[in-house]
Amino acid sequence: MKPDQSTQKTTRPDPNDPRVVLVSASLRQPRPPERPAAAGGAVVRPVAEAAGRAAGSGPAGTGPASVGPSVGAPAGGRADNIPPVWRRRESFWAEVASWSAILFAVIIGVSVLGWFYWTGDSHNHSSFFSRLLRRGGESQQAAVAPPPAPERRRAIDGRPLAAGVPDTDHFAVMIENMVDSRPLAGLAEAALVIEAPVEGGITRFLAFYPPGSAVSRIGPVRSARPYYLDWAQEFDALYIHVGGSPEALDDIKSVKLRDLNQFSWGKYFWRDSGRSAPHNVYTSADLLAKGLADVSADHKTRAPAAWRFKDDIAPEDRPQETADIVVDYSTSDYRVTWKYDRAANEYQRWQGDSEQRDESGAPVRAKNVVIQYSQIRILDEIGRRRIETLGEGQALLALDGKTFAAVWKKPAAAERTRYYDESGAEIALNAGATWVEIVPAGAAVKY
Fold it and tell me: pLDDT for 50-75, tens place per residue?
C-alpha cells in the first residue's frame, strides 16, 4: 500500500518513551490544557518550561529549550535518569583537570625562570630573574653559614697556625759550618736561618725552630757571637750554644736572654762518638722543650712581631729563566749559590760545587732569600767581628723567581728586622722558610 503523501515521519520527544512516532499532518493535534491563571491574569507555567524559555530564543516548542526537558525538569525527566555515581566521576575528573592545569602552569613558570637565570648576560646572571634568585640564595646561605675565621699564620714563617696553639718560645740554635762539621743536621727543617761570617773566613748559622717542632737531631752546636743575640731577641727565643766569645757571654747576661749553654746545661745535649770534637755536640727539639721549661720559670713570654706574608704566585706567572744568586764569603768551600726551582717556587742552596743536603739527605731549600748588606769590622787578631744589626741598609730580596733591590730596617734589638721596597712599602714574603745572608756592605753579589 502506498503511503499517504500527506503523512510525514517526525519525532516528538517523550519524557517517558523516547521512540519514533508517525504523526499525520492532517490530524488535528490535541491542545495542551489551559494553564491556570494567577492573580491579576498572569499565566503560571511549570518551572521546567520557564527555564527552557529563558535559555531558548522563541516561544515554547519553537526554541532549543522546547526540544526536551532541562536539567531542572520535574521528577521523571531525563536529567533525573543520570546515575549519581556518574555525577561523582564527572566531578572527580573535573578536579583532576583543574589541578593538572595548575601544575602545568607551575612547571612552565619554573622553566622560564630557569632559562632567564642561565642565559641572562652570558652567565653573569644580570637579568632581573637571575638577580632575584641569586639574592634569595645568598640570603639563605648567609643565614646558615657562619663567616670564615681569619687565617692565622706563624710570625716566623707565615705557615698556618691552628687555633689555640701558642706562637711563642722559639728556639735559636748556633750551628757551625766548617768543612769538618759537614753534613749538618736540622738545617732543612728550620723556619728561618741567618748566615753570617765569623773568624777565619768561615760562616755560622743561627737556625730558628718554632714551638712544637719535632726535629730529632740539630747540630753540630757551636759557640755564641754578640751579633747573633740581636737576631735571637727579635723572637724572645731560647738561645742554644756551646760557650762563646767573652763579649757574647757578657751580653747574654746583660740583656737577660734565656739561653741553654752546653757548659751549664749538658743534660740537654749529647756528643756523637762518631764525630770528632768539637764538631760533635747535638741536641733535639724534644730536649730543647724540656730545657725551656727549666729556664723560663720567672720569664714573662713575649710574642714576636710577624712579617707580612702571602701565598705563592701562580705557576704561569713565574719566570721561565732566573739567574743564580752567588755569594762568595771567602774560599770556594764557603761560596753559596741559590738556584731557582720554578715548579716548586723555591730556591735550592748549593755550597761549593754541590747541592747542600742535611745529614738525613733532605735538601736545604728556601721560599725567600735575603742578601743583607751590613757594616762589618774586624775587632782583634783572632778575627772576631762586629756586625751592625741595628739601623738600616741596602738589601737584595729574591722570591717568585725575581731578585730586586730592597732596604732593611731594625730600630732596636728586640724589634723585627723588616724589608721594604724602593717605594717604602714592606715586602710580603712567601710563606715558608727564609734564609738571610749577611754580607759586608759593598760586597759583590752575582744575580
Answer: 444 444 444 444 444 444 444 444 44
How far apart, in whole angstroms, are the C-alpha atoms of residue 123 and residue 262?
Answer: 68
Arithmetic mean of pLDDT, 392-396: 98
Average pLDDT, the chain: 82
Alpha-carbon torsion (62, 68, 72, 77), positive or negative? positive
CA-based nearest residue to 236, from 251, 261, 257, 262: 257
400 vs 11: CA distance, rounded Å:
105
The C-alpha cell at 230 is 740581636
pLDDT surpasses 60 at 49: no
- Per-residue pLDDT, averaged over 379-396, amounts to 94
Contacts of 88-93 spanning 24+ positions with Cβ under 8 A: none
Does the pLDDT at position 436 exceed 50? yes
Sheet holding 402-410, edge to edge: 259-261, 238-241, 171-176, 203-209, 192-197, 434-440, 368-374, 391-399, 402-410, 418-420
Q: Are 45 and 70 in contact (CB under 8 A)?
A: no
C-alpha cell at 90: 564527572
By the 8 A CB rule, do 219 and 282 touch? yes
